[in-house]
Specification:
Strand order of the largest sheet: 4-10-9-8-7-5-6
Structural class: alpha/beta
CATH topology of the largest domain: Aspartate Aminotransferase, domain 2
CATH superfamily of the largest domain: Type I PLP-dependent aspartate aminotransferase-like (Major domain)
CATH architecture of the largest domain: 3-Layer(aba) Sandwich
Shape: globular
Bound molecules: pyridoxal-5'-phosphate
Distance between the termini: 19 Å
Order of helices and strands: HEHHEEHEHEHEHEHEHEEHHHEEHEEH
Number of strands: 14
């Protein structure tokens, strides 16, 4: 292939394409339009007037919905506002102001959190915003490397926890095994400092083919008598409406007791109308069937990217069974160049390094591809650009 001519040809098209953020497409959002159409008297839910203040933990039916999505008992779950990220930030605020048993994190000289890499840029942004030191740890294909973690936890007392995206991890797509998860529970429940496993189960029901539930981390933790080490998050952002869904946080009884006074100081109650709409919606629409409809829209896009990468035949990439991302891995030292070549052709890609703490991918080789938001036609055009830029970048390296 003459990549230079192809590059010039694509440049002349003045394209404007975007594979940056993992957002649902408009036709995915359309699947939940009935949410907005609910009318009539649904102001009373489980005897509670949902127009009023109160029900800080969320309405019962919505906590039940959260338990269906996250696969743990309803007793652990609170249904909050429209985003799990904001619940993460509220829980971090609590840790900095109150702490989890050994005083406020803000009093500590240094607080570090382990960040499995490649990972989710917004976890890293939260850490940066709170002044938390981030320590990268490798992923193995079934969760983070336990040996690495064990050594770090034994030698660094500033470590207070770990971010985990256990199912279809953003962006590697891997699924944590129960063995790795038990290992994590053991390490963090025995660490000298009191630690938290931030279990961000954002893609719990986002399967492309077989709907395979993840094990329940609270059951594993209960067996090992260490439930307090886990705080789980999730939301309906990529189930119903991103931005107008419901976020969930799940915690042990003790953690709920500790967090409740702080959380209650921040607000008098969540948006229960939206919660009730969600409860109604999933009484009328089976959750599994609804997710199958998402998969019908999303899977052809993943297949398209996979086919285009296969025919290009350069680098390596993931073929996840769910979630929102494909991770492309070039040879070392090429990602930045590929991304800037793509920008010249009007294709926006997530900045190089975004998959790593502080934006530093030492090897400069990871590129996160988010194929869901655009149409199939746009995705095809975007992969045309991507393949050309990867081909050109490899050619440039060969010529040096
Ligand atoms: C791992 C992960 N967690 C959380 C979020 C955001 O969730 P929410 O919309 O509930 O804030 C995303 C969105 O991409 C994500 O990939």
């Amino acid at each position: 292939m003459d990549y230079i001519s192809k590059f010039e040809e694509l440049k002349s098209k003045n394209l404007s394409l975007d594979l940056t953020r993992g957002k649902p497409s408009a036709d995915q959002l359309d699947l939940s339009n009935d949410l907005a159409a609910f009318r009539g008297n649904y102001f009373i839910s489980d005897g509670v007037d949902i127009r009023n203040y109160g029900e800080i933990k969320g309405i019962d039916g919505c906590r039940e919905l959260g338990s269906k999505i996250l696969g743990c008992s309803k007793d652990y779950i609170w249904a909050g506002g429209n985003s799990s990220l904001s619940l993460m930030s509220q829980f971090l605020s609590f840790l900095f102001v109150e702490g989890n048993g050994t005083g406020p994190w803000s009093n500590k000289e240094r607080v570090s959190i382990l960040c499995p890499v490649p990972g989710y840029d917004r976890h890293f942004k939260l850490c940066e915003t709170f002044g938390i030191n981030m320590i990268p740890v490798s992923l193995t294909g079934e969760g983070p490397d336990l040996n690495e973690i064990q050594t770090l936890v034994e030698t660094d007392e500033s470590i207070r926890g770990i971010w985990c995206v256990p199912k279809y991890s953003n962006p590697t797509g891997e699924i944590y095994s129960s063995e790795v998860t038990e290992g994590l529970l053991e390490i963090f429940s025995n660490s000298k400092t009191k630690s938290i496993i931030f279990w961000d189960n954002a893609y719990a029901v986002h399967d492309l083919s077989d709907q395979t539930p993840l094990f329940d981390i609270f059951s594993l933790a209960k067996n090992n008598d260490c439930e307090d080490v886990v705080v789980e998050f999730g939301s309906t952002s990529k189930i119903t409406f991103a931005g107008a869904g419901v976020g969930f946080i799940a915690m042990s009884e003790l953690n709920q007791e500790s967090f409740l006074p702080f959380y209650s100081a921040l607000m008098i109650g969540p948006d229960k109308l939206n919660q009730a709409r969600h409860v109604r919606f999933f009484q009328e629409n089976d959750l599994q069937e609804h997710m199958r409809r998402h998969a019908d829209i999303v899977k052809p896009k993943f297949d398209l990217v996979n086919n285009r990468l296969e025919s290009m035949g350069l680098g390596a990439w993931t073929s996840p069974e769910g979630g929102y991302f494909i991770l492309f891995e070039s040879d070392i030292g090429m990602a930045r160049n590929i991304i800037s070549l793509a920008a010249e052709l009007g294709l926006k890609l997530t900045p190089a390094g975004a998959t790593h703490p502080y934006g530093i991918d030492q090897e400069d080789k990871f590129i996160r591809i988010a194929p869901t938001a655009c149409s199939i036609e746009e995705l095809d055009a975007a992969m045309d650009v991507f393949s050309c830029c990867v081909g050109l970048a490899y050619e440039q390296v060969r010529k040096v």
